[in-house]
Design a protein that fits this description.
The protein contains one helix and two strands. A two-stranded parallel sheet has the order 1-2.
């Protein structure tokens, strides 16, 4: 049986701080490179500034 690793990221996002929230999200992604997937809380994607 194959094992699949999934990560759950909990960040403290700040409304209106797009660059700060982006850094937090990207930091979580960097830490979870060994996982097959990463879950974020609902609404986090609406606070992400795409570079």
């Amino acid at each position: 049986m194959r094992t699949i690793r999934v990560g759950i990221a909990q960040i403290n996002s700040t409304v209106g701080d797009l660059s700060g929230n982006t850094r937090k999200i990207m930091g979580s992604i960097d830490q979870a490179k060994s996982t097959a997937g990463l879950c974020f809380p609902p609404g986090v994607h609406r606070r992400l500034e795409v570079p």
